[in-house]
Amino acid sequence: MTIALPKTFEFRCLFCYNLIIMKQKTQEHKDKLSKSLKEFFRNNPHPKGMLGKKHTKESKLKTSMALKGRVMSEETRAKMGAWQVGRKFSSETKRKISDAQKKRHARNPGIMVGENNPMFGLRGKRSPAWKGSEVIRTDGRILVLSPGHPNVSVRGYMRKSRLIAEKALGRYLKTNEAVHHNNGNVSDDRNCNLLVCTKSYHTWLHAKMRKERG
Fold it and tell me: What CA–CA distance (Å, rounded) separates 163 from 148?
């Protein structure tokens, strides 16, 4: 379906609220107009715009108080997240962000330390970096977040194979016990593929498998 556009457009300037009437133009005309306007406002900033200006401390405080306690809706969060997906910054932009952060920390030492950090205390599902309770290591082993388990790592994770073996045995594995993957695939944590044995026997099994492979 083709929609007929009006030949003239009327709108008000966001700064001075004066009525502006524009006629429908060709793309070539639009490009020329855009280029000329950018050049004009670069040399002649709008009297009510913020180009080249800075907010006063009072203005910053008012803005901060107005936004304090404001909670974005899930829809807004989803839109912001979708806008960031696949976005890449240039080296110059990264350098500018880094310099701005360094200046911010120099003006306010300790601003992101401890309770001053907005991410402080956010763990598990509350953390924005949460990717689920399971993590796959570079060697292919699957780790599961297991709070409360007596043998968890410093970060609170356990190998999935050990958890499955413990569930089958109905007890915690001993420190000298290991879980062997029969087919050699450490990502295959099916019950039928797991064998609980001592660490010494586990070492002997792997040595035998290497010898058989030649």
Answer: 13
The phi, psi pair for 206, rounded to 5°, reads -65, -35
- pLDDT in single tens digits along all 214 residues of the chain: 344 445 565 666 655 666 666 666 677 777 877 888 778 777 776 666 666 678 888 888 888 888 877 777 888 878 877 777 777 888 998 899 899 888 888 887 777 777 777 777 777 777 777 777 888 888 899 999 888 899 998 888 999 999 999 999 999 999 899 999 998 899 999 999 999 999 999 999 989 888 888 7
- Hey, where are the domains in the chain? 10-41, 134-213
Q: Do 182 and 194 form a contact (C-beta atoms < 8 A)? A: yes
